[in-house]
Amino acid sequence: MLIVGIGTLMMAAPQDKDAKQVYLDKCSVCHGEDGKGQTAKGKKLKVKDVASADVKKMTDADFLNAVLKGKGQDMDGFEKELGADMCNKISTYMRSLAK
Length: 99
Fold this sequence. Notes:
This protein has 99 residues and is of the alpha+beta class. Helices cover 51% and strands 12% of the residues.
């Protein structure tokens, strides 16, 4: 997405994108478009399906914290890159994939 300013061309910030698009850009390489974790990288890292009992029993706060701060050695946090608001939207979107 491009935003045209007066005399300049600027890239839109990640916050300007919707949560689904950011998820597809940043998260789906491991978690898959459907949240099942059945990508090559997801299988290698043993990513859990968002619909699994283990993930469903996580509190919303714990789930959000994983997106914000990362989880283990293999998942980086996205708070600095995307901001807390977008991370919250991504968490909500990911939870919706479990339904």
